[in-house]
Amino acid sequence: HRDLHSFPTRRSSDLKLNIYSMSGKYVYARRFGKQQGQFVHNVDVSKMPKGFYSLELLTDKETIRRKLIIE
Q1: pTM
Q2: How far apart are the first and last CA of the chain?
Q3: Which residue(s) pair with 32 in the sheet?
Q4: What distance in Å separates the CA atoms of residue 24 and residue 41, rounded to the nearest whole number?
């Protein structure tokens, strides 16, 4: 599992978390209810191939993107 600690949300908002492979394929998607403050969610990456991925957290007002490296 990998904790995603670096996603602060500024105001209460519905969240959606997407993970894409570098080829643009969805490999993980999940919706969450209203969240506020530091967002932490565990994602099991043990079955995902090693490589580079793009993490995307969508709120009502913004999109936050981060790189994810699975070694």
Answers
A1: 0.75
A2: 13
A3: 15
A4: 22
Residue 38 has which token pair? 């530091």
- For the chain, the residue count is 71
Locus of tokens 């191939």:
49
Amino acid, res. 66 = R
Give per-residue pLDDT as tens, 32-70. Answer: 877 666 777 788 888 889 999 999 988 888 888 889 888
Q: Which two tokens stand for residue 28?
A: 């993980």
d(CA 14, CA 30): 11
d(CA 21, CA 25) in angstroms, rounded, equals 5
For the stretch 45-52, contacts whose Cβ atoms lie closer than 8 Å and that sit 24 or more positions apart, written own/partner, are 45/1, 45/2, 45/70, 46/1, 51/21, 51/22, 52/22
